[in-house]
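ligand=thymidine-5'-diphosphate
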Amino acid sequence: MARARTVFFCQHCGQESPKWLGRCPGCGEWNSFVEEKVAPAVTAGIGDRKARTPGERPIPLNEVEGADAPRLPTGLTELDRVLGGGLVPGSLALVGGDPGIGKSTLLLQLSQAIAERVGTALYVSGEESARQIRLRGDRLGAAAPRLLVLAETDLQAIEEQVDAVKPTLVVVDSIQTIYHPDLTSAPGSVGQVRECAARLLRLAKATGTAVVLVGHVTKESAIAGPRILEHLVDAVLYFEGDRHQSYRILRAVKNRFGSTNELGLFEMREQGLVEVPNASQAFLAERPTGVAGSVVVASLEGTRPILVEVQALVTPTVFGMARRTATGIDYNRVLLLLAVLEKRCGLALGSQDAYLKVAGGARVDEPALDLGVAVALASSFREVPTDPRTVVIGEVGLAGEVRSVGQLDRRIAEASRLGFARCVVPRGSVEAWRRAGGRADLEVVGVATVEEGLQAALQGLQP
Ligand code: TYD
Ligand code: MG
């Protein structure tokens, strides 16, 4: 029998080393190496035999069947959208998010939906007892007879149960609590997480079961454990949101079966997560009108246009250094736009504090928001309210020019659907849009510079 080998792993990034190191050469973290035993028999891959089907020879690509992977509709449209049309049998997905954000709730609801419509769902929890899951399930109305729960942390026992039950979906909550008995390192260590995830991947591929893992995130908001977890799985979803607000956003950062940048919106209620199909309406619900510094912008998340309110507050600096903060939007982008406004539009913002915020706890990051942010800053600085029925769209360049944005038609259509009367958009895009036969039942104003954008969006602004 081969001797068990010990290796040192960086608990931060998964870097391997034969000896202990004070500082990880991979990620620069100090004192992060921990010795772990690696059992050679396990790393060599038990179960490989079983996974190997006789027909695995190279075949011409165009003879491979199933260009469209079959999907299991989850019944939760927002989740389906993020997954690219439903769960894929035999796939492995990873859901990350801060503690208490609602990962377990979401996945129990997913298990319930699958158990109700498709087949057996097995919800494995290493964190809660079956009783606790039952209590949660009662709140969510999860009572499908095919929804099975298992409070277990031993991977071999889980594999045995999967073999016995043959579920359509397996949820493992969370991968950091699961351990394989052949490895002596503690659950949650790099060796364990890596090995357990790899075995679950083989299990998914071999049996055609869809497997969803919950992953805890570190304080830097990356999924804890080795980076390879993200490379290994087919999809990485992040569940995020402000814990003090009820909206939760599910985002795909990797998806082998669909587009990333897709976004699903949920609201955490007393009876669990409720889908919010109308994202724009939710984010605009409490918008003040006639107040300086508030602008509605149209952001595109994947294929989905979302209107959000950007708020700016510009006040004279009390102490020497001007303060700038940005919530829900890239800080450096705000600094850039302040510089453009100062240099190209002659606004003396150098001695002003500027606070920027995307209302409703949304996080948006797209160049098409630039013009809206610039308008919000100028509006607050000049104390001139924006027209509440105008949506502002456009990327801003360093020369103060307004540059084209993609998919203008979708953004305009969303603005029109929500009853806005005007869109201020880049002149370049509006020409292309018109040529492509675009028309809308609202006024579309094309602008070429930030200066023109301010003129168009601010009420009664004197040139
Ligand atoms: P949970 O799914 O346990 O979070 P995670 O698994 O990501 O740590 O969700 C925890 C929070 O959600 C908890 O603070 C209570 C809240 N919650 C509701 O508001 N309504 C509900 O129906 C449920 C089940 C939870
Ligand atoms: Mg949980």
